[in-house]
Amino acid sequence: MTILVTGGAGFIGANFVLDWLAQSDERVVNLDALTYAGNLRTLQGLKDDPRHVFVHGDIGNSELLQRLLAEHRPRAIIHFAAESHVDRSIHGPEAFIQTNVVGTCRLLEAARAHWQTLPEPEKTTFRFLHVSTDEVYGTLALGAPAFTEAHAIEPNSPYSASKAASDHLVRAWHHTYGLPVLTTHCSNNYGPYHFPEKLIPLIILNALAGKPLPIYGDGLQIRDWLYVKDHCTAIRRVLEAGKPGQAYNIGGHNEMTNLAIVHHICALLDKLAPSRFTPYASLITHVKDRPGHDRRYAIDAGKIERELGWKPAETFATGIRKTVRWYLDNPAWVENVQSGAYREWMQQQYSGAAAGEVQGVKREA
Ligand code: NAD
Ligand code: TYD
Known about the structure:
Elements: E1 2-6, H1 11-23, E2 27-32, E3 52-56, H2 62-72, E4 76-79, H3 86-91, H4 94-117, H5 122-125, E5 127-133, H6 158-177, E6 181-186, E7 188-190, H7 199-208, E8 213-216, E9 222-227, H8 228-241, E10 247-250, E11 255-257, H9 258-272, E12 284-287, H10 302-308, H11 316-329, H12 331-337, H13 340-350, H14 355-360, E13 362-363
Parallel strand pairs: 1-2, 1-4, 2-3, 4-5, 5-6, 6-10, 7-9, 8-12
Antiparallel strand pairs: 9-11, 12-13
The structure holds nicotinamide-adenine-dinucleotide and thymidine-5'-diphosphate.
């Protein structure tokens, strides 16, 4: 048997592929366009593994999709591929519409054509699992109940709007054509192989390099944090037992402010990697806030726990310790991702090139 994974060279997708093949012999066809966020180095350990077939290609390429599905006849598609970074979506929303909306539509169409040719019982057991985000629910006031699956869809950034659009397509392909889809909404992931444009790896690597640790605005925005391996376990469980047409929230029960996250990482690094930059918290620097910055996300993961028996195994304290350890132990991977394209992004987003940002910079204590 075979599954098709899209975006399996990115952060969560690659963790999922590695985890999947560590636990089963079922083949994975991994379709990834290798954008700046895709990294084959993460999958290096699978280079000679016949259970992993890597295909360099775009989910928007209908001909390629049709060929892959006809050749490999997967029993499920796990759809991770996306443009995923909110800040980039503010600078350039088009790519988000192209991949997250148009790309998902093409993938759904190819999946539907493939699914319709399947004989029973394969047709009934086929699954299209769409990996979405808690950001489609919008922002929460302090003290408001956490997002359930019934919460209104109120996306606020170009990224979350494009993901919400793709969620609607997935829902419609189920309702209209009967395609057996599953949708998951997870909170902020962290863990090994995370591209250092996102908060947690950025803070770890900037601290180790003695660079400023940029906090947007007052740093009191709240996110729920999910260790990536827990997310992988949840996806496996939804794939195995989720009900077609249903959505499942996946969270880590770890609501924290950005400032608390950064202080936690600094304190860990003070112990695990003391250097002339300790205490690392002295590098914390407040910079201009993200436009339209959502104040709080919080996930109610009660449904997946009640109906599918899934709970996260890691607390933030245990997950972040593993994550920091991983970055300390894998300097070659880190060096490889901090390539030219990465440096350009850092320059554009954080340097003094934009005068407004320089004015907004304030170093904490
Ligand atoms: P990522 O940016 O690290 O990886 C995305 C991967 O998709 C990359 O390997 C990239 O090359 C590939 N890709 C991009 N466009 C493509 C295209 N047109 N065709 C084929 N491949 C393409 O993202 P991630 O953090 O691993 O997120 C994976 C999924 O999970 C996304 O759908 C994202 O919206 C969702 N999600 C992520 C988080 C998080 O905290 N990272 C939280 C909630 C939901
Ligand atoms: P991020 O990792 O980009 O994920 P998302 O925007 O999808 O939640 O950001 C997590 C939080 O950290 C978010 O509130 C923005 C904030 N943040 C900073 O304060 N400084 C930074 O340099 C980055 C990248 C993010």
